[in-house]
User: Fold these one by one.
Assistant:
Number 1:
Amino acid sequence: MKPQNFEEGLVWYTLLGTYGLYFIGAQAVVIPILAAVLTLCLCKKLWYQTERTPAAERITIPTSIWIWVIAVLIMEFGIIMAHVDWDLGLRSMISSFLGWTRSWAPMAFLPLAGCLNIRPQLIYRGACIFCLQNLVFILIAYALYVLHIPSPEYVTPWSILGGDKVTWSVNLYEYDIYTHELRLLLFTPFANTLGVVGSVYFCLVRQEADKRLRWLGMIAAAAMVISSLSRMTTLTIFMVPVLTWLLTNFSWSVQIAAGITFCLTGLFAPPLFDFLEDLWDQTIKSYRAGSELVRARLFRLALEGSKEAPIWGHGVVAAQGPKYTELVPIGTHHQWAGILYIQGIVGFMSFLIPMVWTTLDLLVKAQKSVTAKVALSIFLTLWICTYGADIQAASCYYWPGLLLTGIALKQKAPIPIAVDRKYALS
């Protein structure tokens, strides 16, 4: 598997060179540049595209991607308005703009780049090889831990671009502040970010054609998720394949089984819900209960704080939260409450609308397209992760999944063929 054009070469070598970028702290700089360069390539091809351009080389941009582009531009406008409302100053505005380029912008412009001639098989193979690289670094990180050798830790000069210094730091692992357990970071700034990224890569590597490489990639991606100790993302690698199968197999047998299941659930709903609630409390909530408590407090404070600036939000996350939240900044650790707090109703709707639209679009296309089915799995993963992480903040780390989403969205939805009843009955 080798790149066949300029854009495939950019994607391939950027993906395989991720750790090189990470150790010099340039990952959050290079990925937005990659998205910009690919977008410029797209614009160039559109500019020179004529009626004589072969159908295989034609560029078409679907409605779903235009919605994302408009949405992230509205978000940036909302950030500017929040800065004006709260008089946060030009320096903060520039810092927020740079943050937008490495968080929200890739959510739109990487799918837009997927409209180029980039093969999904190239992304699957690259994802498998990269996951194997992660498996090596997981072994190194645990070896350092067992041998009591400190992880290499430093902040790169890119920190002058602003934002959380953790974004620009290099550190393979950390210790959980509540349980003191080892949590791997690898090439990501936070452990829960590694969980989100590993879940997305798990969706990608499952489509690799080489069976041995596919299984190794799945093991490595699962190891990324499990070693992050992220509860939510650990659930996704079990839930998402099942959900995707159910949503893309609307056969009579599945419908009948679903009907019987719902009927039985209705009959035994009260004891079943009590059992599930007890199971959730005793397993998921009881494990790292301190983290669960802080998340609940952050959620409440974010919703209460959003009432102070309902339209445009506060514009920024505070540098440090109160003691009540263990100094964790308000507006983090929950996507929806965080957006309401930082970007208000404008930002909330600018994120909700493209998420819903894209999921429905992929759901239709996934009935006939394997690529769309993979992209649907990625978006189901992102939906689940919104309840425990800020998925836009991780976009520079799971960027191949966004690129594949663009490839899936540009495919045309299957059109049912109408059958004339006269001939159908004859």
Number 2:
Amino acid sequence: MYGLPAADAVLTQGDIIDRCPIIDWEEVGLLVQLNVLKPATVKDQIRTHRVFGLYFLPAFGDVLPESIVDLRDIHTLPRELLEQLVVRGQRTVTINTPFREHLAQHFAVTFSRIALPEPYETKPIV
């Protein structure tokens, strides 16, 4: 699922950058310890990508702990800043295809909406 990019590889979608000034990684165990998520929910639903807006990333050796990405909490950063972090050696891994596209699809499902021209007509509840 993961690859170790060469130090001079170009920044790409799916790169995981350590110590990014905005992103705060929390280990899955910490979310469970804080009672935010129940262990059964993580095991049975989040790991199988059946929870809207959350995406599970498995651990990758000592480089990346098991993580849950909250797709509803997004930030934008200048590409130049990310490229500087890559040059400093802060890119830890990259998510390989087709896993990268799978994550992107879940992001799209979380944010895509089809607008209707007007709301449905409803009848009053009696």
Number 3:
Amino acid sequence: MKSQWITALLVVSITFILVCCSDKKTPALQGRNYTGLLFGQPYYLDVVGDSANYTAQIDSIIKAYESCFSINDPKSVISRFNAFQRTDSMFVFNDSTRAFGIVYDLLRDYHRQCMQYYDPTTNPLKRAWMVANMNELGEPNLDSLFEFVGFDNAKMDLSEITEGDYLYKESHLRKADSRLEADFTALAAAVAMDNIVDFLKTKKVVQLKLRQGRNLITFGTAIDTMNVVPMGLGSDSADQLVRVVNRAFTYTTGQDKAKMIDVTYGYPINNEMVYVGVSAPTLSQSVVFAEAFMIMGLQKAGEYYTANESTDVQSFIFYQEGNEMHNASTEDFDAMIVQPDTIQE
């Protein structure tokens, strides 16, 4: 009897504890929203789990990249380099935050990975085609333009100078032709966003979503709806949704081709590509490959995947053959596509 009584008492106690626990409300998640400008375009940052104010740190990251890469600021490093006319001496600057070196090194790697289809030196080609089309002059002189267009060490090269104990001293940029100019804006903005997210991950953040235009980075899984975003295939009400978890996402459309040049042969884009959505571990990868795939076309995009079987660059592509539309995608991207009944509030 005594053992039965103890068992009954335990059952009653456990039941009481469960009832008490069920009456307790789940505490609301704290958070904060941020907004501001990055390279002149608004960004929106939603943070869950940490209500501390990190505006000063975020602004500091943005300032570091804008001071290096804003082509609208004549005092930025890239604007001063573009205006630099000497080919017999180096353009010297101080990269105290190392932002310029970070973006330059990433660009060098991405340029190789995407078979040279992503190139920051094409603005002179774009202007030449614009003038030729406006004045019905036919093709511009591509041979003369290629004397200074093209991202390679023969035309443009960065050296970081160190002193005793390999401490950074200053940076040198070499320009083989005074007419060469570079525009790293899209990549630099993406790297800045990657850096903001990396910084917040070191804090008490449970989840976040950082957006700027088509560019998106997510972290955390506490609130499923924060990670569910439109792919950009149609209007908001009719768009396909994709679940982006601890990754980045961006896309390009056929309309963007009017602002692109295939630097491998110097002509504007005229291919079958209609839409390219890319998700990758970083936004810098997503931005580069969304543009590169749009420029290179379906066949070359397939060649990239054949040569890089272990890549984590996932993509969804719409392309046109005659009057018919088709799509091609990676298996991992297909797994990200959302069915409406799987969204958890």
Number 4:
Amino acid sequence: MARLHPALEPYSPSSDDPFDATKVAHLLHRAGFGATLEEIDAYRSLGPKRAVEKLLDFPDLPVEEQGDEGPDLSGIEGYPNNFAERRKLFESKTPQERMELQNMLQRANREAVLATGLWWLQRMVTGPTPLQEKLTLFWHGHFTTSARDERSAWLMWQQNETLRRNAAGNFGAFVKNISRDPAMLDYLNNQQNRKGRPNENYARELMELFTLGIGNYTETDIKEAARAFTGWGHDGESYIFRPSLHDEEPKKFFGVTGKFDGDDVIELILKRNECANYIAGKLYRFFVAETAEDGVLASLGFLLRESKYELRPLLYTLFSSKAFYAPTAIGTQIKSPVHLLTSSARLMGIDNPSRIPLMGVLEQMGQVPLNPPNVKGWPGGRMWINTSTLFVRYNTSLLMVSRINEKDLNPNRLSNPREIVAYWLGRLIQRPIAAAKRAKLESELGPRPDNGAIRRMIELIVSMPEYQLC
């Protein structure tokens, strides 16, 4: 096996470069949604190797098998439990009754989508497997489907579970599973893909966005791949293959001819170096940095191919690498709206942030779970910030501060302004800031700080540019 790029070699703590609270907080922000001071201490004691192993130690299982019942939709009036129940509702109905029933179901579905999104946000805040949820969010922006187009909360929830189960598993199996996902089959119109009338939408996005990237395939490859996926569809919540709609004739894909089906096309894609490099690059940019040294992404792509597309070895390498802990990586990523909200809840000790109009503020900031803007997902990075969204981000952070429990403002009963500022900077910013800014915060507290002064000081912290970064 080729030697890893030097930037991907394991970070090894030293007296000059310790695995300190700043590095641990960096790890727990990027591989999750931030961490409490107690969690930082616990992971710091493990050391970098075991800390990453602990984060990656989650089951590739649906949440029901992890002790979580999933979103509770039972209280939504008129929302059917499954597609069989939905179909039964329409039996023996007049056209007028069917129209009224359809309107009622649309209203119920909107409520169900909202409840599902809120459940997922709550799991990001308090769930037991933060890296699994962070990966689920990443893959949701990669294998994109939107509830605006799907119109079924149940299928969106089912897809969310598919993303969660495959989040750190085998990428090849993942692509095959998502290609059979009913919400994806609807979103990219493969439900209408049939022999003689191939629909190219899924084949195009499979290569352009999901596996290879622009420029690594031809229009002919798209047309032939679309023929291979003919007959793939779903009946309710279950994938079905419809042989009578499948094109059995030979296809020529990437210069190879055969009677290919969708799985065959995926296997041929996986054999191309561009696929591993593309996926490794997306993961690197999401978790480490927007730019990489020459050769880093190719080295990661080689690692992914050598591990037969198992994702855990790649993720372990990323989170353990020198590049991940480089000064240029720490505190340089703009928090996504979801990360800003969920990490604020975690760092401020707000276990149940549902009292805040979460979906409303997330929509204003540009990121609503289950509703990416288009098939490309969220652009991220600097695109999160403009004059409008920055105003909402500051106001949302201030709103979160107002929800901090009174007894939690000074849990250690500190009286020294310097100690109080140090405590809250360690809790919220979690990395060094300029001495002048620290002094300003101390002066705002005054000589005898009470809870009101502490809350106002916390408002200043969350209004700092540093709070928008992780």
